[in-house]
Design a protein that fits this description.
The chain contains seven helices and 13 strands. It is of the alpha+beta class. Helix 5 packs antiparallel against helix 7. Keywords: Membrane, Receptor, Signal, Transmembrane, Transmembrane helix.
Length: about 425
């Protein structure tokens, strides 16, 4: 019990002494320390005890807070975050016992040397990062910690080939302006950016980051940020409506010509797809580098298909309104019979006085067309029959073309 009491007493005395010493360190002591450190200090001269044999090691990391925006049209990336940069300046070292056991102090950026990093790919005026009144932390070993925050705006060429499923990769290069590899060396503390306090962007999803140093073409450290577009909004509001309109467009040939609405229906869909194309082009950069979005090609193809559907609708309408007593040329009759064959349609042509045509479409169990005979008499063929035959052919043809285009678009997107 006596030994335990002595031990406790010794610990109490030790803790009390430490507490008293810490309490004795006040603003006056820190003011004296700062004055002693900065007396005769030249902030224009970079640290180093031997410039001929030793390089100044600067250690860098970056904490990414958020991706503020990415403008595809202007190619500008804006991010928020702050650096953690530290190095050793022997001129700022001291003995803590001489200054009431003060282990660290603070000063302003303008009062000591800091590495003059600039953003080489800045989209704004080039300037040194930080601010002259930015506080820095100095430790008794001479280690200086500098954490300048801010919004960084950099140029970044947008690759919208697979819009709206595009993946963007932006490179931000920071150079110590005025210094070479013979004077300083930059070390990346981590191979990636810190995401400890990162907040998500509603439009862009961060996929990966990288932090590395480079010696070419100039000494610098590089931040690589990769992010992809959140595509759900564009799928629901852009891709699906275009696909639906494309297939609905084919059914224009099923609208009876007697109603007079077929041409108006086809023209309306043509204008609608053209509006969608203008919406997409307004949201994309006015450049052909590296390539035009595949979606633009798809919309252009759909516009061409819609134009052809309008043309075929007019063509079918012209056939339909021809006088019933006007004879059908033999080459048109042969072409119509050929259309009946390739569309698996067999027309039984009657030469009755009412000139009515009964259409019968038969298929066997194997999915092949029935070999029902076609009347070889040409007198029963009317222009109405020709128009109806071509309507079915056009619908099947354009539906196959649209399906091939849409599947090719999906395949190209999946391969990316």
């Amino acid at each position: 019990m006596i030994i335990s009491g002595r031990v406790l007493s010794a610990l109490f005395i030790l803790i009390s002494c430490v507490y008293i010493e810490v309490q004795c360190a006040n603003a006056t002591d820190k003011t004296s320390l700062n004055a002693a450190l900065l007396t005769g200090y030249n902030p224009s001269v970079h640290p180093g005890s031997d410039y001929t044999t030793q390089l100044l090691n600067i250690n860098v990391s970056f904490v990414l807070v958020s991706i503020k925006s990415f403008e595809e049209q202007t190619g500008e990336l804006s991010i928020m975050g702050y650096f953690n940069i530290y190095w050793t300046d022997e001129r700022l070292a001291w003995d803590p016992s001489s200054y009431s056991n003060i282990n660290g102090t603070n000063t302003k950026q303008k009062e000591i040397w800091t590495p003059p990093f600039i953003l080489a790919d800045s989209s704004e005026d080039v300037s040194i990062i930080g601010d002259e009144d930015m506080p820095l932390s100095i430790y008794y070993t001479g280690v200086v910690l500098w954490s300048p925050p801010g919004t960084i705006s950099s140029t970044c060429n947008a690759d919208v080939t697979y819009y709206p499923f595009d993946l963007q990769t932006c490179l931000l290069r920071f150079m110590p302006w005025g210094y070479t590899t013979a004077e300083i060396q930059i070390n990346a503390i981590s191979s990636t950016l810190s995401l400890s306090i990162f907040s998500q962007n509603p439009t862009w999803e961060l996929t990966s980051t990288k932090l590395e140093t480079s010696q070419s073409p100039m000494l610098n450290f590089q931040m690589t940020i990769s992010f992809k577009r959140r595509d759900t909004f564009f799928i629901v509001n852009l891709i699906l409506p275009v696909v639906f309109m494309c297939f609905i467009n084919m059914f224009a040939f099923q609208i009876p010509l007697e109603t007079g609405d077929r041409l108006g229906f086809a023209t309306t869909l043509l204008l609608t797809i053209a509006v969608f194309l203008s919406v997409v082009t307004d949201a994309l950069p006015q450049s052909s580098t590296p390539s035009i979005p595949l979606l633009c090609y798809l919309l252009i193809i759909h516009i061409l298909l819609s134009m052809m559907i309008v043309f075929c609708t007019i063509f079918g309408l012209r056939l339909y309104v021809r006088p019933s007593d006007e004879p059908v040329p033999k080459w048109v009759i042969k072409l119509t019979k050929f259309v009946h064959v390739i569309t698996c349609n067999r027309k039984k042509i009657s030469d009755k006085s009412d000139s009515k045509v009964s259409a019968v479409t038969n298929r066997d169990d194997g999915g092949k067309c029935d070999d029902q005979s076609i009347d070889t008499e040409d007198t029963g063929m009317t222009w109405m029959t020709v128009s109806n035959a071509f309507d079915k052919f056009f619908m099947l043809f354009f539906m196959m073309v649209a399906m091939i285009c849409n599947l090719s678009f999906i395949f190209l997107l999946s391969s990316s």
